[in-house]
Amino acid sequence: MKQVFGLMTALLICGQAQALSCMRPDPVASYINASEASDVYYVILGQVTLDGPAPVRPDTGTFHEAPDLTASGRVTGKALGPQGFQKSVNLRVDVTSMCAGPWCGDFPGQERALIFVKQSQPRAVIQMDPCGTQYFSKPAPEMLADVEMCHRGGACEPAEF
Length: 161
Fold this sequence. Notes:
Radius of gyration: 19 Å
Mean pLDDT: 87
Structural class: alpha+beta
CATH architecture: Beta Barrel
Low-confidence stretches: 1-16
Strand content: 25-35%
Strand order of the largest sheet: 1-2-3-7-6
Largest sheet: 5 strands, mixed, barrel
CATH class: Mainly Beta
Number of helices: 3
């Protein structure tokens, strides 16, 4: 009986030993993806403020598809233009914490970030995916310079990891 219980336990644990495999998030790769997309994206250096507390995803205790959650808010900061991050923005947004299976993106904090905002109706959308490809918290100056260079038509090579 102990052997059967041990085997069943091992099978259950091994069955759940899955992981999400993401490439390291790279703002240049995100810029390229956004510029090649059929959707229109704003690239903003700023801060997201939700209208209220971030929704809490219920813990089902299972290893299944988790639901996406959305909260409304505002993004303020500077939009990317020909001269860099200079145009002030104050934009109503929906922030969606997206999931891939049980792995989900977090809602943004109050920190300064490089944010890819998709134009949509009735308001723009920030997609917080589990791999972190649309929101870069506390971006380094080199990261911003690389994205600005891409936008100006200069060298635009994603980082190699």
